[in-house]
Amino acid sequence: MSAHTVEEAPPGGVGPTELRARFARALSELYGREVPAYRTLVEVCEEINAEVLAERGADAERLGSIGRVTAERHGAIRVGTPDELAQVARVFGACGMEPVGFYDLREATPPVPVISTAFRPVDRAELAENPFRVFTSLLVVDDRRFFDAETEAELREFLGARTLFPDELLDLADAMASEHELHLDDAERFLELATAAFALSPEPVDRAWYERLEAISSVAADIGGVASTHINHLTPRVLDIDELYRRMSERGIEMIDRIQGPARRPDGAPDVLLRQTSFRALAEPRAFREADGSVVEGHLRVRFGEVEARGVALTPKGRALYDGQGTEAFPLTDEELHAADLAYYREQDGRLSPIVYEDFLPRSAAGIFASNLTSEGSADATQRAAVRDASWLQDVMGVRLHDPYDLYASERNG
Ligand code: OOG
Ligand code: NI
Question: Which of 233, 276, 363 to mutate to test the pocket of ligand 1 (most atoms within 8 A of CB)?
């Protein structure tokens, strides 16, 4: 990790930091056009963030400047093959985003046939500049609990025949990796191609194939049933998620029934980890190809709007306490959280400065997947699981997969 320096944008060129900020903005514009309710969500977040800032002053910015929080987004994407994931790593790598963490959603309830990581900046100064992160899931086609040998073979053939990212985009990504800058024109081309790669495709969906996969898992259908990928959701950050939940409901937007993650903490107690909620997936028009070759207009419900609130990162000890007992058992002050080694803080001029949680929670992620599934799917627990772990994932991506705890610990000490 280059310690706390933002990569300078070269004169006349664009560096990874600026590319990331512009990429996040371009995706936000795209998603706002595609899913108008997202614009309402962003509007309400900005309204609440301005109010919290006015009420709490500097305290509202203890977990990130208002500039950072206003621009902050996480996206979610899903891909089908190790090669596709390696390409994603190149595209995000050009934006200074590296894979952090290994999540196995196959073990969730209900199980989802994917493993995941999050691409994000890892350096504190880079995070402060623009913390754009993308939760990225990979379908596990050879997991027999979900797919029989025949379906696996068909999935491999279908996924092997598609191209998610054009060569021109990958070449530009590689140029950024070796030069640490792109000429302005090249940067614009990169943004155009990268954004287009995550847009919803007008290409007709083969109905029979899609429905066959959907009976196994809606996520499998969303990944392997269509010839392209898309952003599944794009999530702004809010400083008071309980208030956000109330206001969205007041505006008539149907939210899922709860806020995921830690319960609301007593007033004045430091927020921990990550709280999230979402509105239900909306029916979006999609073209379908029927068995007789005709193309008809239909609908799919896969994309939705999510919002998050972030707190201080927990140490392994704090995380074990949270996983076992929730946040009821947590002390109510920074000093006690720090003294008990439950959360990460930097000591600055005799004061404790919280280190914000930059990652995801598998239980919430599973809840988010589940709240938007059109069917429970069918998994056969008696069948053989495919072996997947962090080192397998790292080999596939060809870049280092960071352990989140190592990053927090080095931030605390550095
Ligand atoms: C990813 C779900 C996980 C989160 O915020 O925990 C996620 C997906 O639906 O593809 O985005
Ligand atoms: Ni999400």
Answer: 233
Mean pLDDT of the residues in the chain: 93
pLDDT beneath 70: ranges in the chain: 1-11, 372-374
What one-character-per-residue DSSP string does 311-373 give? -BPBPHHHHHHHHHHTTTTS-SSHHHHHHTT-B-EEEETTEEEEPBP-S--HHHHHHHHHHT-
Pocket probe for ligand 1: among 219, 360, 374, the residue whose CB has the most ligand atoms within 8 Å is 360
Instruction: Report yes or no on whether pTM surpasses 0.85.
Output: yes
Residue 18 pLDDT: 97
As a whole number of angstroms, the distance between CA 369 and CA 31 comes to: 19
For the CA of 306, the nearest atom of ligand 1: 5
| Structural domains in the chain plus CATH codes | 13-313+355-413 (3.10.180.80)
pLDDT at 3 (0 to 100): 45
Say what the pLDDT of residue 141 is. 97
Q: 103 CB under 6 A from ligand 1?
A: no
Ligand 1 atom with the shortest distance to the CA of 364: 6
